[in-house]
Specification:
Strand order of the largest sheet: 3-4-5-6-7-8-9-10
Bound molecules: guanosine-5'-triphosphate
Mean pLDDT: 74
Distance between the termini: 50 Å
Radius of gyration: 45 Å
Largest sheet: 8 strands, parallel, barrel
Structural class: alpha/beta
Number of helices: 30
Strand content: 5-15%
Length: 864
């Protein structure tokens, strides 16, 4: 029976596949300067279930900034970068000024914010929590927020992770605690460690799996010396903190620290302010292309075109990769063992000299080993030994994954005791995104008891790999690398001079298949054979496949960015248009102001009418007499005084107050609206720099004052109005009594006892027929005054209403202009970005066409 256990009952996953965004530092020829911008993948632990949930399914809005999709989204740490270190007390005491500074910092240069917990003398849990909430609300998702030591608070405020001191929790515990409390999230929490020594740094990065380090640089320490004495081997970003807290100044050479290999600096708010924007911009070009890391892969592949064919040996740990290589080389050059033996990428190339000292292995600064060996197979083929794809330290697994795109051919070593495990399947799937040709070997086939077990296993592997790779052309060699090596070694301990001299006998069953594998590989080296041609094609296709992958990632990014640019444009346009709704709201609210004003005018009118009613009485003989006899030049009459002092005067004051408030309301409402719009634009597009010329324009729009309605009222004089009233009254009395003479007038004295107009008229009618006729016109005259008052008051109401409406329209118009003005740069920026992205899309599709042509040409390559 074939041991298919691993497929039926998956082995407990040790550590899972995470495909990191950063590619390994290319081989010797290509080494990035330490101060270049990179994206560091953050490695972490996870579980199987998590692996099955691709990050991009869970986070549709997250941009795929990397070519290496993994089960979890590992936060990328851009380097160089600035870590802003905050004290909770400073945040709370600093109030809005401190928050403003943090806001500016994260919008410009800071990629990570660390809020001190118990480290650095942080305050109580309560104040730390409050500070964390404040900082989180400012930072939002623009930078990573990490809390010192306090996993609970980091979780409570949904921070990106924690920073642990030397004596703090183990990284894995902190990470698991955070992951446990946010099972929904596909973004892994960050765990950073503060270290003081190279050993602690190595330990934190290698065994602990910290994501980055904060190195507290003592006053006497020189980073150059420290880096060369151990920190240099640390593979995760190291941010340097000036422990003496003297502050990083330019004179101290913050940029020198970066050149020494630091990934960035840890600065306080004060230090950040002192350094200034320009200096920071010079030091930290944080706006680097996210695909730069992957691009180096392409450049590297192109430069390798003339180099020997690159055969990468991949497979799970302990599957026998090193033994296969040793068997191919004919000598035990590489260590073999049941515990993972290959921790780094080992690059084997040919050394002409056979002397022992020429057979050397060098450790490259990036951790890779380069071994120069005299084995003939290396003459035309470089072989790469990789760490297992399921090794305990995730970094090693990553190394292997990162190496895949560079290889021209993958030799996939499957162990007979566990054929095609889950992690092998996952790894195979991964290789396919790079369109890699894979040749399988079923190693340790000596473990099968008989040929039918072997046949069964082979059938199983072929069937499944066919499905996985979607091809019928699956090449599988069942081998026993150990037997093949032993056979070679026992036949000649001095092998390796020439392949043709290898005494691997076809007749020996255990090693015969290895012979076939070797034949296959050697046929690759002979350009005159079909497989030899294929080798050339594969070599040429390596950069093409990388380019295609890059291109498709670029296309996705550009498509997504265009989508965002379109959304931005729509948002800007809609925001500008929405000012109309704001105007409608203001208009609706203004109705109550108009109502109040109208009812004030109306109330005043009513009071005037009441006064008319009570004044224009024939029974008011005193009044009649004084109007008729005193004449126009006489002192102001009491009724007039009442109009002036009690009715019109206070009404005008009230109206002025009311309209003043109305104008203030208009002004503050539009100013508030304008401010809200401005904030919305600024909040959404923190990166758009607002042109200074615009600021004047916007200030101009908002400064425009409106005052039409108040001017209408100001034009009314209480004195003039009451004079007019007096004139009207006098005219009414004169018109009525002026022709009666003394008899009529004295007769009318009778009426002084009679209260109503009707009674007045009756009495007068009794006294004289002529008097009756004259006096009978009095009601009409009174009515005329009433009408006049109505007309004036209604006219005034109309005028005021119109003026109020005009003030509203002008205010709203100013607000609309203001919003249009402030929105324009954002609208233009979005449009410009969209246009550029559309051009870019076209460029990319042209590149795509060229790549297709190239691929066809490579397929048609012939040796002449
Ligand atoms: N029975 C048998 N054992 C083998 C064979 N090939 C390798 N082994 C054994 O398997 C174990 C692991 O071999 P390595 O070559 O170190 O395996 P590896 O895949 O390079 O291991 P890592 O470098 O740790 O990933 C060793 O004990 C080998 O002796 C084989 O063909 N048959």
């Amino acid at each position: 029976m074939i041991p298919l256990l691993s497929l039926q009952t998956p082995r407990p996953s040790l550590f899972l596949t995470h495909y990191p965004p950063r590619l390994p530092t290319p081989l010797p020829r290509f080494k990035s300067p330490p101060h270049r911008t990179h994206h560091f993948p953050v490695h972490s632990f996870s579980n199987d279930q998590q692996q099955q949930q691709p990050a991009n399914q869970k986070l549709p809005n997250q941009q795929p900034r990397t070519l290496f999709p993994g089960g979890y989204k590992r936060p990328e740490i851009k380097v160089p970068n600035i870590v802003l270190q905050l004290d909770p007390e400073d945040v709370i005491r600093g109030g809005s000024e401190a928050l403003g500074l943090i806001d500016k910092a994260v919008s410009k240069s800071v990629g990570i914010v660390v809020l001190n917990g118990s480290i650095g003398g942080g305050g109580s849990g309560k104040s730390l929590y409050e500070a964390a909430c404040l900082v989180k609300s400012v930072v939002r998702d623009r930078a990573y927020l990490l809390i010192g030591e306090r996993v609970d608070i980091a979780t409570a405020v949904d921070a990106s992770g924690v920073v642990l001191s030397d004596q703090g929790l183990p990284s894995i515990v902190a990470r698991n605690m955070m992951m446990g409390s946010r099972t929904e999230s596909v973004v892994l929490p960050l765990v950073a460690r503060i270290v003081q020594t190279p050993n602690a740094a190595l330990n934190a990065s290698n065994s602990e799996g910290a994501d980055f380090l904060i190195y507290a640089l003592g006053p006497e320490e020189d980073l150059d010396v420290e880096m060369s004495s151990g920190f240099g081997n640390v593979k995760i970003p190291i941010f340097v903190l000036n422990a003496s807290r003297g502050g990083f100044t330019l004179s101290m050479g913050a940029s020198k620290l970066l050149k020494s290999g630091a990934s960035g600096l840890v600065l306080s708010l004060e230090e950040l302010r002192l350094l200034g924007d320009d200096a920071l911009r010079q030091m930290f070009d944080t706006k680097a292309n996210p695909l730069m890391g992957e691009l180096s892969l392409f450049i590297d592949a192109v430069s390798q075109i003339d180099e020997p064919f690159l055969l990468a040996i991949v497979g799970e740990f302990n599957s026998g990769k090193s033994t296969v290589i040793n068997a191919l080389l004919g000598k035990r050059y590489l260590n073999e063992g049941v515990v993972p033996t290959t921790n780094e990428i080992t690059f084997l190339c040919y050394s002409k000299s056979g002397s022992e000292e020429q057979q050397r292995c060098e450790r490259h600064p990036d951790g890779q080993y380069i071994c120069y060996l005299p084995a003939p197979i290396l003459k035309e083929m470089n072989i790469v030994d990789t760490p297992g794809t399921n090794v305990i330290l995730q970094r090693q697994q990553r190394l292997t994954e990162e190496f895949v795109p560079r290889a021209d051919l993958l030799l996939f070593v499957i162990s007979a005791d566990r054929p095609l495990t889950e992690s092998e399947v996952a790894f195979l799937r991964y290789t396919q995104q790079w369109k890699k040709k894979v040749v399988f070997v079923l190693n340790k086939s000596d473990l099968y008891r008989n040929s039918s077990e072997l046949e069964e296993a082979m059938l199983f592997i072929k069937e499944n790999t066919r499905k996985l790779l979607k091809t019928d052309d699956v090449i599988l060699y069942p081998i026993s690398a150990r037997s093949a090596l032993e056979a070679k070694l026992s036949a000649s301990p001095d092998l390796g001079k020439d392949y043709t001299e290898l005494p691997v006998s076809k007749s020996h069953l255990k090693i015969s298949r290895f012979y076939d594998l070797e034949q296959f590989l050697y046929s690759f080296l002979d350009a005159s054979t079909t497989t030899g041609m294929e080798r050339i094609r594969l070599k040429l296709e390596t950069p093409i496949a990388i380019a295609e992958r890059l291109l498709s990632a670029c296309e996705t990014l550009v498509k997504q960015d265009s989508q965002y640019a379109k959304q931005d444009l729509t948002f800007a346009t809609e925001l500008i248009d929405s000012v109309k709704e704001y105007a409608i709201k203001m208009e609706n609210e203004s109705i109550s102001w108009r109502r109040k004003t109208m009812s004030l005018i109306d109330a005043t009118k009513c009071r005037v009418l009441e006064l008319i009613e009570s004044t224009l009485q024939l029974s008011n003989l005193d009044l009649v007499a004084s109007y008729i006899f005193r004449g126009e030049k006489s002192a102001t009459m009491p009724a007039t005084l009442k109009i002036q002092n009690d009715i019109i005067g206070p009404a005008l004051t009230d109206a002025q107050k009311l309209l003043g408030e109305y104008l203030k309301w208009l002004q503050s409402n539009s100013a508030r609206g304008g401010k809200q719009y401005k904030e919305q634009f600024e909040k959404r597009w923190t990166s758009v720099t607002y042109p200074t010329s615009q600021i004047h324009l916007e200030a101009h729009d908002m400064a425009k004052k409106v005052d039409l309605s108040i001017r209408v009222i100001e034009n009314i004089s209480a004195g003039a109005t009451s004079k007019l009233f007096e004139k009207q009254i006098r005219e009414a009395f004169l018109g009525t009594f002026g022709g009666l003479g003394a008899a009529g007038l004295s007769a009318s004295l009778l009426t002084s006892v009679l209260p109503t107009t009707l009674e007045d008229l009756l009495a007068l009618g009794l006294c004289s027929a002529g008097g009756f006729i004259a006096i009978s016109s009095f009601p009409a005259r009174k009515q005329a005054i009433v009408d006049k008052v109505n007309e004036i008051a209604d006219g005034l109401a109309r005028e005021v209403e119109e003026a109020m409406q005009n003030d509203l329209m002008e205010t709203v118009g100013n607000l609309e202009n203001f919003v249009k003005t402030i929105g324009k740069p954002y609208q233009d920026a979005a449009q410009e970005r969209l246009d550029k992205l559309l051009d870019l899309q076209e460029e990319l599709s042209n590149v795509d066409k060229k790549l297709r042509t190239l691929r066809i040409e490579i397929q048609n390559v012939h040796v002449s």
